[in-house]
Write a structure and sequence with these properties.
By secondary structure, the protein is α/β, with parallel strands linked by helices. 31% of the residues lie in helices and 30% in strands. It has helices spanning 2-15, 18-21, 30-33, 61-74, 134-143, 158-165, 178-190, 205-214, 243-250, 271-285, and strands at residues 24-29, 42-47, 50-55, 81-86, 97-101, 107-112, 115-120, 148-152, 170-175, 197-202, 219-224, 229-231, 236-238, 254-265, 289-294, 312-319. The termini are far apart.
Length: 320
């Protein structure tokens, strides 16, 4: 069963030319590509010559090693080192575990659409590059010439790098985690972006958005991809409760004809409910928004046709 489902998935991506576009790619997405009890609970990502396996449920050791064997045979140049990320426990604090081969030490560069990003396999809970946001990064590289960009909940700053590579005049990167802001700085520096000005803020979005407004700052593009839940010294944030409050602070910073790209990772919040929260914030702030389109998953993340079953939800919205 493993070989019969994995090989066609790899061949599909090769036929679409996805391996040629990027060093970083999801090569198998179990929830959308398999009904098998084991395979439906895993995802396989490649980063240059390294493989990252994520599992959302316990997998027998025999099945796991069979999976490794198929990977080594089918994609030998992509799996010199293989790690396993166990997400079968809710809110697990475990880091990735080396599973097989020569796993790279520290951060290393992968290129996506020609843009370099830093990723990491060991001693981390995530490689540092959200592969489901590849279409958004491509959009940024094509649309941000001379734009002022604000990247909220930035994580490792990959969206900031994409905007800078797209010719942005300035990029402000904001995140609550000090280690990820440092990673974002490294990401920016290794990309050697000479044109745009890069600013990095370690702090709480709810604290900093009013400060930026008080300074009279405006942005042509604002990127907002919050976690489902986070806690700060002064309170907590939840996408289930605080989307209107969050967007009520964001919209006053959006310049005329500016674009807000907002997205969440949640199967539990319907798309319509999410958009309603953003619309409520727009009414409260007197902002008129124009729908431009959805933040979509890449071809390497096949999912059911019904948008209600997709975990990634998001919109491109223009201030008019």
């Amino acid at each position: 069963m493993v070989e019969k489902e994995l090989i066609p998935a790899f061949e599909l991506r090769k036929s679409l030319g996805l391996f040629d576009e990027s060093d970083a790619l999801r090569v198998f997405y179990g929830p959308g590509e398999s009904t098998d009890p084991v395979l439906s609970q895993i995802a396989i990502d490649v980063f240059l010559d390294q493989t990252w396996i994520t599992r959302w449920a316990p997998i027998p050791d025999k099945a796991l090693m069979n999976l490794v064997g198929v990977l080594r045979q089918a994609l030998p140049e992509r799996c010199r080192g293989i790690v396993l990320m166990d997400r079968s426990e809710v809110a697990s604090e475990k880091d990735s575990v080396p599973l097989d081969g020569e796993v790279r030490e520290g951060k290393f560069v992968v290129k996506e659409f020609g843009v370099p990003y830093l990723v990491q396999m060991k001693q981390t809970k995530h490689p540092g590059l959200f592969l489901d946001h590849a279409p958004l990064r491509r959009w940024l590289t094509r649309t941000q010439k001379a734009k002022r960009v604000l990247n909220l909940f930035s994580y490792t700053g990959a969206l900031s790098v994409a905007a800078g590579a797209g010719g942005a005049s300035s990029v402000t990167t904001l995140d609550l985690s000090k280690p990820t802001i440092e990673w974002a700085k490294e990401n920016w520096e290794q990309a050697a972006l000479t044109g745009p000005k890069g600013d990095f803020i370690y702090g709480d979005v709810f604290d900093w958005l009013p400060r930026l407004k008080k300074k009279g700052l405006e942005y042509d593009t604002i990127l907002c991809d919050p976690p489902s839940f986070s806690r700060t010294k002064t309170g907590a944030f939840s996408t289930g409760k605080d989307l209107a409050r969050l967007h009520g602070l964001i919209l006053p910073l959006l310049a005329k004809n500016g674009i807000l790209v907002t997205s969440i990772n949640s199967e539990n919040i319907p798309e319509r409910a999410y958009l309603s929260e953003v619309e409520a914030a727009a009414r409260l702030t007197g902002t008129r928004l124009q729908w431009l389109g959805r933040v979509d998953l890449p071809e390497s993340f096949p999912t059911p046709m019904d948008p209600k079953q997709r975990y990634l939800k998001g919109f491109y919205l223009r201030s008019v």
